[in-house]
Amino acid sequence: MLVASSFFVAPLYAVPSVAVNVVEQAPLVQTVALNGTLRGKGDVDLTMGTSGKLAFVAEPGAVVKQGDAVARIEMLPLELEAAEQRIMIRRAEVNLTYQRQELERLKKLAKTSSAAANQVDLVQSQHDLALTDIELAKVKLKQIEDRMARATVVAPFDGIISKRFLLAGSDASRADKLVHFIDINNLEVRFYAPVKYLVYAEVGQKVTLSSGSFDNLQFADARVTAVIPATDSRSQTFEVRAKLLGDKNKGWASGQLVDVDFKIEKTAPSLLVERDALILRKAGVHVVKIQSDNKALQVAVAVGQGQGSKVEVRPLEQGALKQGDKVATRGAERLTSGQEVLVQQ
């Protein structure tokens, strides 16, 4: 009796399946979280232009248009000085007229030897002095008129009075601080970054600032207007200034603390792979490259900075990894070089 038997031959091993991702090449952008302070670009302490008793000083919180009065001193003393000086000019002109007539008379007498030469010279000098007296008096009048023009302190731009140093009725001297005037319509953020990032900071690049609590967050974009390459031995930071873009000045205050996202971009492009593609071993870090024949190849890499879900890698062997190559992101932990794989679609 013959017994029929069936034999099933199982494969020696199953081909492992892997998920892959393409190696990208792009400039690496890293966001550095910093703290900054908002300031008006033209914030200034307005000072007295001349001495006198203050008749008016704008109150804190007052919105002042460009060219409008911020402070003013009493004009009567200056007006009296100007009137007195005009009288002095007329008096000097009267004296000059007399000296001119006297000089002409003596010159006629000198022709007939009726007047001594030294007498003519004396009157001539008096005439010249009278002429210079008029010029000096006119200069003095211009100085008084200049003080009168500076008796009213005007706003250099549209802004708001944030602080008042002197009140109306008090005496003030030239250069005394009157008010702190803020340029609320041209806010800029000023922040300090570690000096190691100086080579990445450029005028024109954008930064993002935010402030507020989780239920009332504020965001705004700003463009770098100044990079100040100066630091000290303790802080090792440099100052960056960035102006808020568009009409984003509303809702922000001068002196407000904000969070600044400062993006650092490498000039040379970097190879980027998914973080899941990295395989850490005692001997080092490697990725598994899937070649065109669906065979695995371990490529040793040095790991750089991260960017979101991706990370910068540099192959230890030049040319071993390039843009467009496929690397395994799942199922590659036990793969060896030359092993055949099944790529998941």
UniProtKB/TrEMBL annotation:
GO CC annotation: efflux pump complex
Membrane-spanning ranges: none
Residue spans of biased composition, Polar residues class: 336-345
A GO molecular-function annotation: efflux transmembrane transporter activity
Region (Disordered) location: 322-345
UniProt feature, compositional bias: Basic and acidic residues: 323-333
Superkingdom of the source species: Bacteria
InterPro entries reported in the protein's UniProt record: RND_pump_MFP (IPR006143)
The family this protein is said to belong to: Belongs to the membrane fusion protein (MFP) (TC 8.A.1) family.
Protein name stated in the entry: RND transporter
Species name: Pseudoalteromonas piratica
